[in-house]
Write a structure and sequence with these properties.
By secondary structure, this protein is α/β, with parallel strands linked by helices. 40% of the residues lie in helices and 16% in strands. It has one domain (2-157, 183-211, 251-266): NAD(P)-binding Rossmann-like Domain (Rossmann fold, 3-Layer(aba) Sandwich). A six-stranded parallel beta sheet has the order 2-1-3-4-5-10, sandwiched between helices. It has a two-stranded parallel ribbon with strand order 6-9. It has a two-stranded parallel ribbon with strand order 7-12.
Length: 284
């Protein structure tokens, strides 16, 4: 299959390119320096030149606090940049996979969110991604919308790196106990997306590592695996953690639709262990 990946220089986009090439798909990757997704004409030109059968749209502004401080920029990139990609797919008869987020939900539900539960974004980042979802659904008949959460990936800083950096530097750790979701390893997510697109079963999917935990529980698990068992963590609440964005407190995603196709991801604890081993951060 001829596949165009936006955001190919990013952590998920790069992992998708590697795994898809290993399965003999023909991959063209573009990043922000090659194609600004808010430039409608450039997006149309790129899709016309590549003639993909499928576009994997990973490019996004994902810094949630920055999005809270710059909501118009977040909406322009994540919402209307996605519109440009969707219209190019529409014009050139390409299917589209859009990577979205648990933050389209407000996190007030006690049960896990299923794929067609009603979104209610609690912050500008979630709102911008929800706008992108709607534009994909409105403009491209053959589409996948894949929601994920708490991505843990190689090649850049993430929550796991931040916790270990602070512990290694002897800095005090304060982590919230009432923000709950599913940590998701980028290699597992890319494998699940690869399997999903090969089914041709379009729709909305939740792809996260199995299970859920709080930020506090994740931090404790990471420290223990990495040999920092004696490092204390002060438990705090979201109300005590001052930041620009307001994350959903309990945004657990249930993988119902993909599981019906036989696509599941291992427990988050195993995924975190595998990530640490690959990064050589786990205590032998």
């Amino acid at each position: 299959m001829r596949i165009l990946i936006t955001g190919a220089g990013g952590r998920l986009g790069g992992e998708l390119a590697r795994q898809l090439q290993a399965r003999q798909h023909t991959i063209t990757g573009v990043d922000v320096g090659q194609m600004d997704i808010t430039d409608f004409e450039r997006v149309q030109q790129t899709v016309a030149e590549v003639r993909p059968e499928l576009v994997l749209h990973c490019a996004a502004l994902t810094a949630v606090d920055y999005c809270a401080e710059h909501p118009d920029e977040a909406l322009a990139i994540n919402g209307y940049g996605t519109q440009a990609v969707a219209q190019a797919c529409q014009a050139h008869d390409a299917a589209l996979l859009y990577v979205s987020t648990n933050e389209v939900f407000d996190g007030r539900a006690r049960a896990a969110y299923q794929e067609y539960d009603r979104p209610n974004p609690p912050n500008p980042y979630g709102y911008s991604k929800w706008v992108g979802e709607q534009l994909v659904r409105d403009l491209v008949a053959r589409h996948f919308i894949v929601r994920t959460s708490w991505l843990i990936a190689h090649g850049g800083q993430n929550f796991v790196h931040a916790i270990l950096s602070a512990a290694g530097a002897g800095q005090p750790l304060r982590v919230v106990t009432n923000e709950v979701a599913s940590p998701t390893y980028s290699r597992d997510l890319a494998a699940a997306i690869t399997a999903l697109i090969e089914t041709g079963r379009y729709g909305i999917y939740h792809l996260v590592n199995a299970g859920h935990c709080s930020r506090y529980t994740l931090a404790r698990h990471v420290l223990d695996l990495a040999g920092y068992t004696g490092t204390p963590i002060e438990p705090i609440t979201l109300a005590e953690y001052r930041r620009a964005s307001c994350p959903p407190p309990r945004s657990i995603l249930r993988n119902f639709a993909a599981a019906r196709l036989g696509i599941t991801l291992r427990p988050w604890q195993d995924a975190v262990a595998a990530f640490l081993e690959a990064e050589r951060l786990r205590e032998p």
